[in-house]
Amino acid sequence: MRGNPFLTSGPAAASSMEDLSIEDGSWTKEEEPKKDKFIVESELLIPGKGDPITNGSIVVEGNKITKVGHSSSIATEYSHLPKYNVKVLMPGMWDCHVHFIAVQAVAWDAILQSQQKQALTGARCAPDLMRLLDAGFTSVREMAGCGIQLDEAVEEGSLVGPKIYSSNSIISPTGGHADLHPLPKPWFDDLCAHGSPFQTADGVPECLKIVRMQLRAGAKVIKICGSGGVGSELDNPVDQQFSSEEMEAMVQEAARAQRIIGAHCHGKAGIMAALHAGVKTIEHGSYLDDEAADLMIEKNAILVTTRLIVENGLKSNKDFFSSRGYAKLREIAAHQFNAMQTAIRKGVTCAIGTDSTGTLPPGNPLSKLVRQGLNAMELYYHVKAGMTPLQAIEAATANGPLTLGPQAPKAGQLKEGYDADFIGVDANPLEDIKILIGPDHVSHVWKQGICYKSPGKPISFI
Ligand SMILES: [Zn+2]
């Protein structure tokens, strides 16, 4: 991994000028970037999966973790390496359901504006990416939005943020959750043709084509609507949307390209149909009951409940959702918490996802509530619904990559051969999960072996 010119600290911090040499009068990059090697020691190492290690350490080489163990054994063998000390060491967190659309409200007209002013949307997303990394989120799964383009900016070093695995669009039938109902249909189709991440398809041939278009755009996962939604205007969250035949066709098309499908599902009919069709992640899952939980376990599917947006919507008291959306939100809210409790009690595999859509501007009274960077609130809600803090951390780390199926990187765990994405925390989240919320207790952030944040050196890209 090449030194990032925007780094503020760490062994890999290097001036971009140092990475360049002059040959024949032109600037050329070095062939082989140097692999940095260092140790991180901790008072408590939480591996993501498995038991914590008191006084645990890791050895990092380049962008990989090469050794994990008790500090005494590692210190003897690797005493010559540079060393960091943190209180608690754990994998970087994953938010498996975000949107980079920077909307100012969950309403069709706000979404429309975010699509009409794409440069403004991109500009608002840039600090959101930094907020996520600052809060210890080193990876996100984006379930519709401009994540593919933002990921390109992060990868090339123009922006600092988490790794983004995006679905590109959300796909529903005409009139479904991904449709903007109040718009004349030709206007909506025109938006779709100009890069909007909202798409409709009807019947198997159109469904196949729209999946192929997401693959063409670079989607790592395919997002479809198995039920109606809350933020959309005229559909009902309880109703199934795509037919079983349409869902099966899309699952198979995605599978041919080694992708899985994540289905937005509130109502039970949609959850059951999606699982029978081979969908691997259920998003929201508001009406999941014992029978649906059993089927999830049988199908080895993962639940991403997104409680944060529900709680924020309720607290915002009609100011963040449209009036129709707010009425639907109130209808599903209690069901959704029961569904989380059921899933946790039954042992369904859960991953953490918040449905965060952006950060409201400072003048907005809801800006302290609705923002990227408070995503670990979702771990708190999972603990409230029955998880231990250790289970919630597993859901936010080791389980994150599982939501990408065959596209999953070896990440989310402090394990030999895994990506060097990890964070230092200055208090014990096993005693109080809330310390993970926001950037304050996240003392260090490494992504791909590069230190982006350490005490006294905040995240910055300028
Ligand atoms: Zn969503």
Automatic annotation (TrEMBL):
Gene Ontology terms for molecular function: hydrolase activity, acting on carbon-nitrogen (but not peptide) bonds
Gene3D superfamilies found in the cross-reference section: Metal-dependent hydrolases (3.20.20.140), Urease, subunit C, domain 1 (2.30.40.10)
Protein name from the UniProt record: Amidohydrolase-related domain-containing protein
Region span, Disordered: 1-28
InterPro entries named in the record: Amidohydro-rel, Metal-dep_hydrolase_composite, Metal_Hydrolase, Metallo-dep_Hydrolase, OTAase-like
Pfam families registered for this protein in UniProt: Amidohydro_1
Record-annotated Amidohydrolase-related domain positions: 88-449
